[in-house]
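B., you asked whether I could sanity-check this one before it goes into the benchmark set. Here's the sequence:
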Amino acid sequence: MILERDSFLQKRYRIIENLGQGGMGSIYRAIDENLGLEVAVKENLFTTEEYARQFRLEAVILANLRHPNLPRVSDHFVIAGEGQYLIMDYIEGEDLRQRMERVGLLPEDEIIQVGAAMCDALTYLHTRKPPVLHRDIKPGNVKISPDGHIYLVDFGLAKVIQGNQATTTGARAMTPGYSPPEQYGTARTDARTDIYSLGATLYAALTGVIPEDGLARAMDNAQLTPLRKRNPEIARRLAAAIEKAMEIDPGDRYQTAEAFKLALLNAKSKTQQLTGTYTISPPPPEAERQADPAKAAVLAHSIPLEEQPFVSPRKKQMQRTTRMIRTISGGFLAFLLISFLLILFFAPQLLPDSTRKYFTFLPSVPEVVLPTQTAQVETPIELASPTLLNTPVIEMTATADLTIDVTQTAASALTQTLAPTPIGADYLQIAYASTRTGVSQIYLTNLLSDQAIPITNMPGGACQPSWAPDGSKLVFTSPCGIKKDTYSESSLFIIDADGSNLIPLSTATVPGGDFEPAWSPDGKYIAFTSLRDGYMQIYSYNLASSSITRLVETPVNKPARQASWSPDGKTIVYSYQRVDAYEIWTMSAFGLDEKSFLLSADYLSNNFPIFSPDGKYILFSQTNTRDAKLPDLFFVKLSDPSTPLKVSLGVNSITDVHYSPDGNWLAYEAGGERGYHVYYSTPSGGNQARITQDVFSDDFDSAWRPILK
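And here's what the prediction gave me:
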């Protein structure tokens, strides 16, 4: 029975309107007369003893949920012979279905924000003890408030998982197109059920079409239409992420909502935000929508939204696309015609004789006979050197006492040589981390063939590769789904260059996180940064004995990190935060003779130090935190650390620089909030190119492969 307007529940909640009605109950907007607040009342008409017991158990759990993307459940009760009721915060605004009806296909950026917000909410629900499943995610249950905040609403079908039980009790319903196949009948549902439904919701928002039903797909009666087939403008990585979430087999989907969120955020190089901060453009004011009769119809709540006919905007989108194609085609044909006429009248000699004979008004073109001679052509010779000897733009930066300010050229400080830059396959293979599939993995690119070959396939992602000196294998960090400054739960792994023979190091069992590995030139040790003592320190892993030695022991909360070996393997250079900013220090390969190499002021932070191939110079990135500038590249002579010189390579920021084995090339990372990319060039910035032109993924942590021996 539908509750009448102005009727009361529990002598406290006055019904204002019926927002929706289905076979299992209704949703009402009401006023809490005790507090003077608007609330949402969810009614469940199943009143058997088993359902009542299940309802009370789940209501207690839901009442304790607190998350910025979830409405608060404030009360619950059962009225004998009538129904069960949940009282929740009423969220004003429009739901995602209404937004789809109002604007048509939703922009990718908005969908990523919606998906990330929902994943945050699901991660919170799924990690409760016991876990909570929503089980009814669909556009009608995603609400956008007047300030653009995103909420997951309607917990009428929520399920609390007790132990390893299958979901056989409690209210259960399926929404065709949004429910996975395991939700039909009495099969077990878990966190991956919600991930499927969220993927289907995002699919519908991007295409304007409800996806094929999960049960029909499981029975081979239907196949999921690829998302980009319905909307070719969708980014490939975003489409791949959503389709993975909608796999029929739960084992093939993302196993956690957090993994799905990372894939969405990395689909278009989005920067990860804090929980609860994902917002989209707010809906128009209520009065504005009601003033338009067509839009006012969207506000009708007399029947459930899933039973209303869904007017897809896809047809309008296709018509707009057709008009655009016609316009472009017409413009191109006009361009060809005008170009032909210009050639015809102003440069007829460009036309072949077979064509010119049809235009008798054209003047004849005399035949030109070129004299036979041998031309001497000068072959340009490019400046190159094993070090940064030929850097054209170099500026003096602050020294230890910050009193020197001089401008000079690199040529005045170093010796230049004239030699052609060699290009060979042995020198042009770079390993790097990329989020092109949603989670960071390590790829190997041959710069001559421009082909990226995946090396790792780690569930939690992989990054920070460092090659063995013979180039046959590399060590890397995992898990690391996206680029971060530290990886608090990571371990080190070794893998062959072809992606086989994965070996976890013994550090994997140690809590705290191991990362930033660096393989020694003799192949016997791996230096790395670890949080095992609560703050960053540098350790050495002996590959022969599997023993670990702490190389640096600095005061508590004074981190040391980013170890790099000298070419002879006798010295390690590293970054040490002795003061507010990082300084450059050196020590022996066994952690002895620690020395300050390059001091910095409290606003100049020096990071990512490396040796040049001849061992005479140290390159490093410097960030001026006072001016909030992006990091610049500097180099300094090992014998004279008082005069670091700035290097300009033509990009906005430079970090994590690596030399090619012959010393004639550099690979480095550049970027910032809008994404990271790996570049390579000569030390002077010549022949600069990016490893990949994909703008929707982050590429970072480059490592030049040594010459195979």
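One thing to flag: The chain has three domains: 8-89, 101-291, 429-704. Otherwise nothing jumped out at me.
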